[in-house]
Amino acid sequence: MAKGRVLSGMQASGMAHLGNYHGALKNWVRLQDEYECFFFVADWHALTTLFQEPGRIRKHCREIATDFLACGLDPEKCTIFMQSDVLEHAELSVLLGMITPVPWLERVPTYKDKQREMEGHDLSSIGFLGYPVLQAADIAIYRADFVPVGEDQLPHLELTREIVRRFNHIYGADALVEPKELLTEAKVLPGLDGRKMSKSYNNAVYLADDDETVRKKFMSAVTDPQRQRRNDPGRPEVCNIFAYHKLYTKPERLAEIDRDCRSAAIGCVDCKKELIQTFFTLFAVIRDKRRELEAKPEHVRQVLDEGAIRARSVAQETMETVREVMQMGWKP
After folding, report:
1. Is 199 part of the annotated catalytic residue set?
2. Residue 262: enclosing H or E segment and its boundaries?
């Protein structure tokens, strides 16, 4: 496509939740009509925190791939595959790791943040420190022009560009492409407890959750902590449930909820029940399709296999160029 090539992935550390949908998947569905897109399930990245639980990663890969298709990614429009099915990711990661200074990795803003978020997990591995190198390889192996990111991910992408620039400078060739950002407008979606929605915090609503689970989760969500009684006036700006209403509720009704919350004309329970019904309506198609796909795992696997063939073809071309400029291998 004239606009260029896009690459993005999602870590196989659990099922996709609403934060993943609004932060990535919804945007990917739009991008597949505008760019040549490659989207992958990042199972090797999941090993940075789940290396002691390999069975979970396999299960999560199936779930994430199912989420991709349920949300509208179309294998006729984009390439969908699993990271570990294209071994060239690992080969390029090893080579890029040889030229990447350790201080570059230690300064990544989310390095210490992730350590705090994943407290209790063994994060002392080379894989955890060096995951930005593998991330750079994921992008560079497809010579991607663009990567869709939020503002909080810009430092990661800039590190990828620095690694690519260093590689091209050392070997005197433009073998790899410096990717540009495609900034997404999605804001961080709060979890049910008010913190960022995260699988690690156990505060997420998943696309795979059944109706009863969705109800229980939203009904237990934290609202305005100062609103202790039904007739206490509320503050929508600090309420998690209102944050979801801003995403899902029509503007005219949203204004009424804002007004009625502040005057205590509506209680938190009623506000939550209305949100639940709105959510069921808006996500009916995605959730129905997901249930259908769960019953056809062989179809999901076929999509991944066919996507890996297409991805591997592009990756192999890049690696031929990389090996040549690095003068790897024996040539008489």
Report:
1. yes
2. helix 251-262
Quick check: is 112 catalytic? no
What pLDDT score was predicted for residue 151?
Answer: 81
- Provide the sign of the torsion angle of the four alpha carbons 145, 150, 153, 154, taken in this order: positive
Residues 6 or more apart in contact with residue 308 via CB below 8 angstroms: 81, 82, 85, 86
- Determine the structural domain holding residue 22 and report its residue range: 5-189+297-326
**The predicted structure's pLDDT at residue 216:** 97
The answer on 157 and 47 residing in a single domain is yes
Q: What is the pLDDT of residues 157-188, one digit of tens each?
A: 999 999 999 999 999 889 999 999 998 776 67
Q: Which of 26, 77, 114, 187 is catalytic?
A: 114
Residues 69 and 184 in one domain: yes
What Cα–Cα distance (Å) separates residue 31 from each residue in 15, 133, 209? Answer: 22, 25, 26
Query: Is there a domain that residue 143 lies in?
Result: yes
How many domains does the chain fold into? Answer: 2
Interval 279-288: pLDDT, tens: 999 999 999 9
How far from 264 is each of 146, 209, 242, 245, CA to CA, in Å?
47, 31, 14, 17
Active-site residue 180, yes or no? no
Identify whether residues 125 and 271 lie together within a single domain: no
The whole-angstrom separation of Cα 149 and Cα 306 is 26
Residue 130 has pLDDT above 80, yes or no: yes
How high is the mean pLDDT of the chain?
92
What sign has the CA pseudo-torsion 165, 167, 169, 173?
Answer: negative
Give 81's strand partners.
40
Instruction: Assign 252 a pLDDT band (cuts: 50, 70, 90).
Output: very high
| Token reading at 69 | 């298709």
Which candidate in 26, 59, 187, 196 is catalytic?
196
